[in-house]
Amino acid sequence: MRANLAHIKRTLRPLYAWTQATPASVFLDPAWDRSIPIWPGMVLSQTAGETVSLIGASGIPYGLAGDYVGGDGFDPLLDVGVNATSVWILGADAQFEVLSPAFDDTQTWTEPNGTTEKLVYAITAGTGRGKLALATNGSVATAISATPVGRLLKVNSLSKITIGGLR
Fold first, then answer.
1. pLDDT tens-place string over residues 106-163
2. Which run of H or of E encompasses 154?
3. CA-to-CA distance for 160 and 157, rounded, in angstroms?
4. How many Å apart are CA 90 and CA 166, to the nearest integer?
5. ∠ CA 121-124-130, rounded to 5°
6. Model pLDDT for residues 58-89, shown as the tens digit of each residue
7. Residues with Cβ < 8 Å from 55, sequence gap 6 or more?
8. Please, are residues 67 and 85 in contact by the beta-carbon 8 Å criterion?
9. Distance CA 27, CA 78 (A)
10. What pLDDT score was predicted for residue 81?
11. Whole-model pTM?
């Protein structure tokens, strides 16, 4: 890591992942134009085989990005010239803390009350593409994935949430 980027906080933090989630080795699609920075925790979809890209309008959520791809001005894939990256595939018991900007912090995130589940989706278009979002669109969300990514477990603060895998 470059010394001028040593202050960066990882925006995806596994809480329960050793046996509850799978870090898969994948490749960033060479067609990805890096038009939107990817932070760890943003949603990727599979384009073909072991190739992934930031989720788009027709994409199905594959997992959460494990690496920076331009987020915070940090792009280790570009620096080393290899498109190898990782994606976290959530199991039902997986739990992750996700920090903004990997989720839509313009939405009103409220904790589940124990009687209803709040499903988390991915924004599929616009400047918020790839960010986690609730089904009720926020100001950044223009469209969300048809398939949920996970469940909202906790709202830690305005800039941090905890999500879990689907049951």
1. 988 998 888 888 999 999 998 899 999 998 755 555 689 999 999 999 999 999 999 9
2. strand 150-157
3. 5
4. 8
5. 70
6. 999 999 999 999 887 888 888 888 899 999 99
7. 43, 44, 45, 61, 62, 122, 124, 129, 130, 145
8. yes
9. 12
10. 87
11. 0.92
